[in-house]
Amino acid sequence: MLIIDSKDCENIDKALKKYKKKFEKSRTLLQLRDRQAFTKPSVRHRTKVLKAIYKQQLAAGKFD
């Protein structure tokens, strides 16, 4: 649960902006999306490896 401390004189738009930023930093939405469908650990590992290979190739300059 996110708690936003706001003063009485603070604008509601500022409080909403603080809430949105705090919500994004907590990565709650990403966790929710990950939990919607189960991925096998082997598939998760394979995607992690492929992502690392892609990053290495990108750093080496193979992709423009």
From TrEMBL:
Protein name (database record): Small ribosomal subunit protein bS21
Give the organism's phylogenetic lineage. Bacteria, Pseudomonadati, Bacteroidota, Chitinophagia, Chitinophagales
Its GO CC terms? ribosome
Mention any Pfam family matching this sequence. Answer: Ribosomal_S21
Gene3D superfamilies (UniProt xref): Ribosomal protein S8
Q: Which family does it belong to?
A: Belongs to the bacterial ribosomal protein bS21 family.
Which InterPro entries does the annotation name?
Answer: Ribosomal_bS21, Ribosomal_bS21_sf
Which source organism does the UniProt entry give?
Ferruginibacter yonginensis
Q: Which domain of life is it from?
A: Bacteria
The encoding gene is rpsU
Keyword field: Ribonucleoprotein, Ribosomal protein
